[in-house]
Fold this sequence. Notes:
The structure holds 3 protein chains of 3 kinds.
Chain A: H1 15-37, H2 41-49, H3 54-85, H4 95-130, H5 138-157, H6 185-213, H7 226-258, H8 271-305, H9 312-325, H10 341-369, H11 378-400, H12 403-409, H13 413-443, H14 449-475, H15 491-520, H16 562-573, E1 585-588, H17 593-610, H18 613-631, E2 637-640, H19 642-662
Antiparallel strand pairs in A: 1-2
Chain B: H1 6-39, H2 57-84, E1 98-105, E2 108-113, E3 118-121, E4 123-127, E5 131-138, E6 143-147, E7 151-156, E8 162-167, E9 172-178, E10 191-196, H3 198-210, E11 213-215, H4 217-224, E12 233-238, H5 242-247
Parallel strand pairs in B: 1-5, 4-10, 11-12
Antiparallel strand pairs in B: 1-2, 2-3, 3-12, 5-8, 6-7, 6-9, 9-10
Chain C: H1 9-12, E1 21-23, E2 32-34, H2 46-75, H3 85-88, H4 91-116, H5 120-150, H6 159-192, H7 196-228
Antiparallel strand pairs in C: 1-2
Helix pairs in contact in C: 2-6, 2-7, 4-5, 4-7, 5-6, 6-7
Amino acid sequence: MFGKLTWDVIPWSQPIPLVAGSVVVLIVLAILAWVVLKGYLPYLWREWITSVDHKRIGVMYTLLGVVMLLRGFIDAIMMRSQQAIAFRAAGYLPPEHYDQIFSAHGTIMIFFAAMPIIIGLMNFAVPLQLGVRDVAFPTLNSTSFWLTATGALLVNLSLVIGEFARTGWLVYPPLSELPYSPGVGVDYYLWALLISGVGTLMTGINFVTTILKIRAPGMSYLRMTIFCWTALAANLLIIAAFPVLTATLGMLALDRYLGFHFFTNDAGGNMMMFINLIWTWGHPEVYILVLPAFGIFSEVISTFSGKPLFNYRSMVAATMFICLVSYLVWMHHFFTMGAGADVNAFFGISTSIIAVGTGVKIYNWLFTMYGGRIRFATPMLWSMGFLVTFTIGGMTGVLLAVPPADFLLHNSLFLVAHFHNVIIAGVVFAAFAGITYWFPKAFGFKLDEGWGKAAFWLSLFGFYVVFMPLYVAGLLGMTRRLQHYEVAAWRPWVLIAGIGIVIMMAAAACQVIQFVVSIRRRDQLRDETGDPWDGRSLEWATASPPPPFNFAVLPNVQGAEPYWGIKQRAIETQQLSAEPRYEPIEMPRNSPTGFITAFFSTLTGFALIWHIWWLVGLGIVAAYAVFVWFAWRDAVEYSIPAEEVARYDRERRRARAQWLAQHAGQPA
Amino acid sequence: MDPQGPIGAANAKILLNALGIMLVIVVPTIILILAFGWWFRASNPRARYRPDFVYSGGIEMVVWGIPILVILFLGGVIWIGSHELDPFKPISSPAKPVEVQVVSLDWKWLFIYPEQGVASVNELVVPAGVPVHFSLTSASVMNMFFVPQLGTMIATMNGMVTQVHLAADNPGEFYGQSAQYSGGGFSDMNFTVRAVPQDAFAQWVATARQSGSALDRSSYLALCQQSSNVPPLTYRAVDADLFNAIVTQQLPPCPGPNIERAGATVRPQPER
Amino acid sequence: MSATDTPFERAADPYRVGRGRDWLSEGAGRGYVYATGHGEGGPASKRVIVGFGFWIFLLSDIVMFSAFFAAHAVLQTATAGGPSGRDLFNWWSIVAQTAFLLVSSFTCGLSAVATEARNQLWTQVALLVTGLFGLGFLVLEGRDFAAMVMQGAGPDRSAFLSSLFAVVGLHGLHVSAGLLWLGTMMAQVFVKGFRADILRRLVCFNLFWHALDIIWVALFTVVYLIGLGR
Lengths: 668, 272, 230
């Protein structure tokens, strides 16, 4: 009746997951209770859960990602502290637990922290920067988000119900096959990723269509912001790579559930094929993460230097170059699997070639700063930290791309330090830069500068204290994923890294405090005009937060940096452009489709994990029924009357006119 | 970073050379980043504000050109290095290489000396100054044979044979481990490598032939069961085709865990 | 920039089907142009957007199939001592399946013609026939699979058979999903008539059904014809 589910699957006898799980459950229940008792539920349902507005969905994605970042960070704290004390000792985390923690850390950070934050920022900013009202398929967008949330929920459920995979974040077979992982851990992993992978693929389709087919009049390709270009490249990569992930994990699921032999040791299975396929997805995945991060930095550096981006066309070329070549380098993740010198050399060279594109970008950012008037607000600080730190990480990557060097450093802490170097400096710093940059646009008030800067400096310093010693430990031969170790030479470095994680904990605390303080002080931090940073792209033309329809009238784009042009003209002529003729606007209706589909997907996923076959059938039928019910609706859109459009827009214009009057006669 | 053999030394040399090449670019870049950031800060009245400086053909050429040149050079290093240090490539030496067959099990290492007819677990004894040709496979999941001070690591996989050639220049004791996570006992999967003078090696072989049990199919199957922290031991005789039988799967892959934490109802599927 | 006096705002709203004229930027010096769907004239029409998005989805689906094809290429010879393709393939059944799919693509095209003519009866008939041929395809394929399993040549016998069942089965799964979709479309067309959004969905369905046929051609070639030579 309940498949493999019994009361034993809850970790009664293991204090750490039991306490952690109980705390999380209590917090979740407390939040739910507060929401319901305060009467927020109808508002949340109407305005957020069923919303198909890209701005709301973007915020929800980002919030999910940030919460999961904290969860993954807690895993990291546990790993660093375990390694710090486990020199010739057992430490406090037994192997079966430690192994789940590092697997969960990687899985959560990549799939449920980094991806959602990046997708969230793209969701929020891209339609605004393109000067349009929403993405191509708004309800699909909502479904994407909720499916991603489903995956995150399933992974977190494994903490209290059952266990997580003990295989590392990429579940290599044969370790992940049934004989060696008979528990439910790998199944949790598989279904969480298969379900959320569908969501991500739909995001890819949505954004490629939006960027290529839905832009403001006059916005040719070379007038798009560079963030939109990087979003395009990333979403093209999503479309080209995520189906491979679905296929590969699907094959593993077939092995585990139906006794297939894709990757088993026996009956002709080929584990090397898994490794090839998964990295065919895996390498484009990291570029999916880092390209929009580059785009964010381009926007931030340009805005805070007060200059257009240096060599925009070269940046576009470098972006698309990286997009293409990222598909040609996957083998550098397993030089030591014995492919032979020719193959190894080819992929080593292609990996080095991709470094050229990134190098070009760094220099273009450098020369964007040259001749600028740089304001070191928090987003710009994150960018500076990125520029220096990422250069080091990129360098170590090129080192690892040399097969003979990799023969010594594969899977060592040097590798771990390298990819954290590029992901933290690249993606995480970009996440914080982007969140700080666009926060006022989303919520109408800025984040507190003081706590933001504190968070930055502590993060930067903490990063170096954690990961530079790990480079050294890797050079001394320490391999990754060790629950305890014997070699004395590694000890000092592991200890320093343990101290560093405490610094990063302080940084995380500053981030949290930053949000609390900013919300408390929001009236003093209010963004009145909608353009708090003297921005250059179209999102800063709207009010903060923008009305549901973004632009009362779609802007007519006449050059690159359209908003900058509008602003300069207004400042020169000391008046706003004439008031447009307002028309009613049709917007898509909200829909619970996404949420309900995800609900049934969660049930189906959970049922598949625990072999509750009747529930699987029920879940699939119900998900299909939701789809049909959604497809059956007649009222797809609702109309915003012209008077309401006018009211929103006149308020925005009034704020702008006021700013103009206050800054009369001052240079731009 | 303390290589004790020719392969390890060559690997390390390439690593350091590549690092040097990259630092030539990276260090000035970082200095420029910090310098530009400092000089062009808004509060610096001496810096010239040039909002129209958005393109320069010269800079573009340099910015694409220098990385391309470096990568060309590095490409050469990669091509040559990958061929020179291909694990399949024998070490040129007047001495005849010693053959060692390596099997990774859960969670220990089995070293078979086919020419000497002995085997050992978790201790690898090799003559110093003599190249060793390793043929490797796995009895269960993927592992990676790695002796940091001797150089190149290589994967071990069930049903397949990988190869690597290594040598220790001088006698010494080195640390060996698996560099591919393979399950609960992975952290204990380290072993000692002892490089000894040639006569000491012959003596070790002779001693091994006189003590311990024989490694035949049934003792191998006992070794197959999942265990960790296995103290080093030797076998006085080895079935001649044991390694082959493991590779061709005449001896089936070793089983996984018998019981799972997640409930008594969870059962591993039987191997076919 | 004058936002008021240009008439483009009317057609630029993305939630209107693009009709009428669009104003390209002044700098280009061109006058009124129809929204070309390439974005520069403002957002494209819904029909273009939906069609384009669905094409991209089909491309991603083809990428997924490619992964399975690649796996099949690797595992073709991994028969683990068991039967190979030559021993197993039931040629008459495979030819019949191919014929059924090709005919169903033809009748699907006929349904598109009937839809253009807004003829409810013939649209439904053509769609029904398409569905029946699709169903026939599935029945034949199911029987083949069952027969192989009975013989002890199920997907758990060897890696080759795993790959065979997976790639052919994935296609069959898509056909099944297509049939479910077909039934839903027939019901929608019947109840709601030829409304604009229903028409857009029919276009998507047609694309999907024809794409399935193309995948089958690739499958037939790679798995069956080339597999025969192994």
